[in-house]
Design goal:
- This is EAL domain-containing protein.
- It comes from Anaerotignum lactatifermentans.
- The chain has eleven helices and ten strands.
- The protein is of the alpha/beta class.
- It has an eight-stranded mixed beta barrel, surrounded by four helices.
- The longest helix has 21 residues.
- The radius of gyration is 18 Å and the shape is globular.
- The structure holds guanosine-5'-monophosphate (G) (2 copies), manganese (II) ion (MN) and sodium ion (NA).
- Manganese (II) ion binds next to loops.
Length: 253
């Protein structure tokens, strides 16, 4: 309750902060992009994680405000990098199902992105499939409109909960992020067979495959052998505050 009341104030006081977790190319370990993850820097409670406040915001119908806020911060950051000649680093941004399935989603995104100068394909929108997969037609329409505007779309948490191969057929997406749960099992015979097959299917459909939650060297080798494209996980990078991420990027490039 206390948190709910302070959420509105949090936007006004700019208490939400963006962190960035780098992605590496599976073959070369080169940093190629990253995921924007929000943190709430609460004046009394300190850093609050999205696993706490995102579900609350979804319940209170405030999540779209956060999603759009993050999108704007990500655009600022991409423009900033673009001006410093860092011109191939991409960033993915999370959107809740509520936000992504709304009828004015594409217009809102275009309005937010319009003032910023960077190649649109450096922006990836991450969407998840949920239990109540309502508004499928609206989501399909939004995906098509966004892709023709230039941004790319990835299916997040693939292989967890309610997502399935059917979603890949249903939505015209550019890539999938294999859920940490799949990566956790990747060294077992069945786990490796499943992930290998998923990567193969994804590639045949022309998609980029990212593995999430990679924590060990053994997992990295297994994923390399399966031709996974991109790796995200604590083995390489934890989420960094954006100023820290920027510093490291300027050193790398
Ligand atoms: O940051 P963490 O490492 O705890 O992220 C937990 C979850 O919170 C992730 O699944 C991510 O998708 C979600 N998340 C983080 N930031 C945002 C955001 O701005 N909007 C939405 N909808 N989800 C977010
Ligand atoms: O949006 P999504 O659920 O994919 O967000 C990624 C989440 O996974 C974030 O909470 C991020 O902090 C977390 N994460 C990223 N890499 C790792 C990892 O290697 N191990 C664990 N346990 N969590 C990770
Ligand atoms: Mn994500
Ligand atoms: Na995920």
């Amino acid at each position: 309750r206390y948190l709910q009341e302070s959420m509105d104030k949090a936007f006004v006081n700019k208490e939400f902060q963006l962190y960035l977790q780098f992605y590496v190319e599976a073959g070369s370990f080169r940093v190629v992009g990253g995921e924007a993850l929000s943190r709430w820097n609460h004046p009394q409670k300190g850093i609050i994680m999205p696993s706490v406040f995102v579900p609350l915001m979804e319940k209170e119908k405030m999540i779209s405000r956060l999603d759009y806020y993050c999108l704007e911060r990500v655009c600022e950051f991409l423009e900033h990098l673009w001006k410093k000649q860092i011109d191939s680093f991409f960033i993915s941004c999370n959107f809740s199902r509520d936000t992504f399935s709304s009828a004015d989603f594409v217009d809102q995104c275009k309005r937010i992105m319009a003032p910023f100068d960077f190649p649109k394909e450096l922006l990836i929108f991450e969407i998840t499939e949920s239990a109540a997969a309502k508004s499928v037609a609206q989501v399909q329409e939004n995906i098509l409109a966004l892709r023709s505007y230039g941004v790319r779309i990835a299916l997040d948490d693939f292989g967890e909960g309610f997502s399935s191969f059917y979603d890949i057929q249903q939505y015209p997406i550019d890539g999938v992020k294999l859920d940490k749960g799949l990566v956790d099992d990747i060294l077992s015979p069945s786990g490796s067979a499943i992930v290998r097959a998923m990567i193969q299917v994804g590639h045949e459909l022309g998609m980029t495959i990212l593995a999430e939650g990679v924590e060990t060297e053994e997992q990295v080798y297994a994923l390399q052998k399966m031709n996974c494209d991109v790796i995200q996980g604590f083995h390489f990078y934890v989420p960094l505050p954006y100023w820290d991420a920027e510093k490291r990027l300027l050193e790398e490039y």
